[in-house]
Here is the input.
Amino acid sequence: MLSDRNHNTFANNPLDRLAQRRTDAAWLAERLSNTSSLIVPLWQLKPLIVVAKEKDAPSAIGWLRPGFVRDLVPDDALQVFLGVKDDVAYFAADASAIEDPKQHGSLAATGKFIELRSIAPDLTSGDAAILAQAKSLIDWHQRHSFCSVCGHGSDVEDGGYKRVCRQCSQEHFPRTDPVMIALVVKGEECLLGRGAEWPEAMYSALAGFIEPGETIEEAVRREVLEEVGVEVSTVRYVTSQPWPYPSSLMIACIAQAQTQAISLDDHELADAKWVSRTEVIDLLKGEGDGTTWLPPPMAVAHQLIKHWVYEGGGG
Ligand SMILES: [Zn+2]
Here is the structure.
């Protein structure tokens, strides 16, 4: 493990999700109008952010009071329950119906709608995690307003953690897609690949969706063999990261290679190469020769590589 506490961006959500209260419609309605409650609006999936005025100070979520939100969004706008902390209930609202937030004086004075990926490094870990939850949930609702069984419209229930079809009563639940990400290692070397669509020189651990009926370990062995033709033996789980684009869970592992010859699947990867631990240390320090860049600290791949280098993970 990296440590007992998960340090990945979007982890460590400080809210108590209070799942047992989600089915209590009266309680939710009371909380949604209670003046102590706080609601973050998302406009086109971008959360409202109060940008820090001072350098090095964190930016913050632009929480609004229920009365403000009522004036801002239509009555039927989606509002999802995020959780409770210190007896304050937290919600997220889809404010995409606002035509142009910049023209909305009091809103513009509060903050700006900013894409989560670009602002996440400037937020506290708790705020980034809350917004990952809010964004993934609202994104799911926007894509799932119709029943996948009969095609009729569905209604939001349980504070946003369920939709129920109006015609056939089928229940639908927000999805999370597991993705494995593996650093393949052999002795003092690790295997890094460059995605076909990535910026020149950007290299990372190998990743892919876990398929139905597959374990994490089987997915790692299959993806690594498919992408680079390397056979893997032991696979060891290291850490995980919620990744709200739109709703993945990155499951990071160290995988021991049995073979080293690379046979590239050029539909998936533009390049792959073995890199020594010494070279990786230079890259992490920003002292590479410019031909190879690693993902930024926000990406779990960065944390996984650091784990292998500095904590002897899988060595
Ligand atoms: Zn249906």
